[in-house]
Amino acid sequence: MTQVSDKPAERPRLRETREERESGNAGVVPAELTRLFARFWADDGDGSGARTSLSGTKGVEGAAMIEALAEQLAPRLQAASQWPLQAVLYLPRLGRINASVRREQGAWSLDLEAEEEATARWLSGVRRQVEDRFTQTMGRTVSLQLAVVGSA
User: Basic and acidic residues: which segments have biased composition (predicted)?
Assistant: First the structure.
């Protein structure tokens, strides 16, 4: 008869331990991201805590917001079967943005209407970057029109 041990068999661990994976500062959040996160959640004095002034939304923050717009709209364009495409986009701190997209000869026509005045001001400030990002994402020239808040 073969003897069987009552202790569980030890198998070599295939996964590295957490200590082996993390080396040095791998778990440290860069200061720039910490500041960005703090701005997103800073209290602007009205007690809401979730909104801040949009006047400082430049650089990394602005690029992230533009990227978020493109990521929300591009899949909808690829799946659209009826034109013009009507969509509602949402960005943290900026709120809802109504979008209307039409196909034109060799280009896209994109109308954006922000529900909040501060968001409309932000969009007008980054208009060129938004056009460039959408042109890159959609593979065609994009003509961006911004509606005046409260005109509808």
Answer: 7-23
